[in-house]
Amino acid sequence: MSLAIFKQHNKPLLLLALPLLGAHLAQTGMSVADTIMAGRLSAVDLAAVAVGSSVFMPLLLLLFGTLMATTPLVAQANGAGNTSILSRTIQQAGWTSLLVILPIALILYSSRAIFDFMSVTPPVAALGAAYLKAIAWGLPAVAVFQVLRCMCEGLNHARPVLLISVAGLLLNIPLNYVLIYGELGFPKLGAVGCGYATAMSFWFMAALLGLYVHFEKHYRNFAIFNVFHGPSLKEIAAILWLGLPIGLSIFVEASLFTVITLFIGEMGRFTVAGHQVALNFTGLLFMVPLSLGLALTVKVGHAVGAKRLAEAREIAFYGIGLAFLVALVSSLFMWIAADWVVKLYSPNQQVQLLAASLIQLAVWYQISDAIQINAAGALRGYKDTRIIMLITLFSYWMIGLAGGWWLAMTDNFWGAQGVYGFWYGLIAGLSVAAAILMWRLNYTSRVHP
């Protein structure tokens, strides 16, 4: 990688990626706060948040990913100087979000049946289902926030999203404290309090971002809210055609962790709790390469829209190289800090020991995970989204989940590995995904017209 390429692309990419990282860390921080604060109450509450989050997060990412089609649409329109269509695009994305949140809400309200089918222990299943019903009240706010967020990020204005996400986290923590532990005259709700606190934080963030977009001078030129656009089936279908493969590919990856957590649910509350602690901590560190991948979507999309195809390829591969270096640092930190970090989540020694050993395993897939998410992000900048869904479906489910289940639950060559077998499967699945997505990016970036 030449010094000229570094100077040309490093600063613009980081100026976009760092606010995105801050926003993701703040939003993920709500999940971390839920996990830590519920874990300090009891292992059952921690396990309930674990199984509840394992259902909610993939569905939330399905919504996020589908609406993420807004980002490359806005970025390419902005790169081509065609800003007149932004108002219609944003409002049609809003109508699209309604089609997505309705089935998500139905699944959340039917979650007890899912937990029972997966043989999750009854106390954890009951509490987890109640947690999901509470958090479902925030779904409309999540949809509004995500549409406006994608618009801001597509226009290279990620800082407001960062500040508002931090504000949401700062509200979520005291709300958690009041509702989980029953302070200030409120009833002691435990894990269910986490759900209500998160839903209220979602509404707070959506209101703030809506007010910002409405009053900020920069957005007045786009006339986003000046003219009402009713739902257009043609435009909604176009957004879904581009966005659903994004949402489904992200959902496939996230649901891999969901199904693993539900399989583990029958292994007991301490195993579930330890698995959740490890997953929560590694997921927090994953926000760094994820933010770089989202920045790549915007920067590559902008260059493609402006017909600067050689520059788009340079940006894509520079971003992946940067993600590789970040993953090396992340792996080293995880290796050193695992024993210390798990003590923040739970005072239970059994939970701590299991979580620390799983984090040590996660060190081995940090590089492949960073590469695959950034290759996918660059491909989305080219609007090459459907192939990502197929690649991730094969890698995560056929290699990661099926292989992990075989290692964990069957009397194989090494004997049933329990929870560790699923984590071995994760290493294999993410590595295969990284290899195939890199091949696809190399091909797409060379032949794109």
Automatic annotation (TrEMBL):
Localization of this protein: Cell inner membrane
Keywords: Antiport, Cell membrane, Ion transport, Membrane, Transmembrane, Transmembrane helix, Transport
Any Pfam family: MatE
Lineage top rank: taxon: Bacteria
InterPro entries named among the record's database cross-references: MATE_fam, MATE_MdtK, MdtK-like
Listed transmembrane segments: 55-75, 95-115, 127-148, 160-180, 195-215, 236-265, 277-296, 316-338, 350-367, 387-408, 420-439
Topology with respect to the bilayer: Multi-pass membrane protein
NCBIfam families linked to this entry: matE
Protein name as annotated: Multidrug-efflux transporter
Species of the source: Marinospirillum insulare
Upper lineage: Bacteria, Pseudomonadati, Pseudomonadota, Gammaproteobacteria, Oceanospirillales
